[in-house]
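Intended use. Records like the one below are meant for learning the mapping from a protein sequence to its folded structure. Do not use them to infer anything beyond what is encoded.
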Amino acid sequence: LDIVCQSFGSGNGVRVYENNRDGTWSPAWSLTGGNANYTVETSDFNGDGFPDFVCTRWYPNVSAFLGDGAFGFTPVSTGIPDLQMVCVDVGDADGDGRDDILCSIGSDSGVHCYRLDTGTGQWQDFSTGLPATGYYDMVQMGDIDGDGFQDAVIYADPSGQVFLGDGSGNWTADATWTMPAPGSASAMRVDGDTDHDGREDIVVQAEMAGGMFDRNQMKLFSPWLEPTALAARVVRMNGGEVLVAGSVTDIRWVTAVPPAQPDASVDIYLSVTGASGPWTQVASGTQDDGHYQWSVESPVVSDQCRIRVVASTGAASDEDVSDGDFTIILDPTGIEGGEDPRISVIAAGIAPNPCTGMGIPVLSVERAPCPLLEARLYSLAGRLMGESRPFAVPYSGPVPGMVEDLPPGIYMLKLSGGGAVEILELLVL
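Structure written out for the chain above:
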């Protein structure tokens, strides 16, 4: 993971730092100058699989940027008012797999939700029912009522309110709360279900008067409804998302766990062939905290990917599968320059074929953008079957160190090196 940050106040702008994977960071991109408030959020607004971000930098009032996967960012703010953005959050308000923006706009311009029209490159207002006027210190998105649609949580010192979303840009005013006076905002998060009732909760920190000095007070607000049965629900990836193989992202879910049952543990599975599987395990026995940081490993480029979450307490179990397909693609920016950045394969197969229990992958590679290649063999369901030792190019012969007892079936051989990737389909008879 890399870092995007902005300077709260004046002058330092927005900066992106690349993770060097050794505990150090290198400057990768910057937009200097201007003033900024305190929130910045990363997301994928246009569904290309690369991280974008939205920030509260102003003067000039350009807040949203699309990333190209190579630390390049292009401003895209048409449709968003040319006013100071007070605070911002992101979430998939319309359920298409691409995140949208919830923000408070300065000059007492209220709270607005915007979704990006990828055809025109303009932001569309998606805010029917949200306050069109007033100053709001903090905004968050989350599923407060557990219906699968994102809701809006907004705060104006010292009071907060929930607006329930219907996935079509309509928001209905719902619950309210008030913090102890003066209630000056310092932080608010909607990012998980602390009491496991299947609904996300609200955490607020605000200033409270007392004695000679004010002090911060933190409160948690829950839409608690006691669960009667164990239930699991996939939140992300739930359909429409685009992921780049090798990237890092979050799988998210919520569970409703009856108080009489012990804490749940969660198993996570991936299918690259739709809702019927077969399934490859991604995580086993992970904590039921609603988040799993996933390094996206898939040998198959597929637009039929699903996640299955299985929650178990010992007393009961329940599972849920993504509502729709999401996509895993290869990174088109990962190939570096040169006369020919591709891996040139002359032939690949299994020998002998048909085989009687001793089949082994063989291949002939003419050239590659690096002196050494590595190979991984996967089943069609995405299960890792074997890994090679690094081998020099050009090469012709059995894949070094590879499994030798392949049963009949279809396999994917993934070659990688120098930023290039080649995926080959092998058939064992």
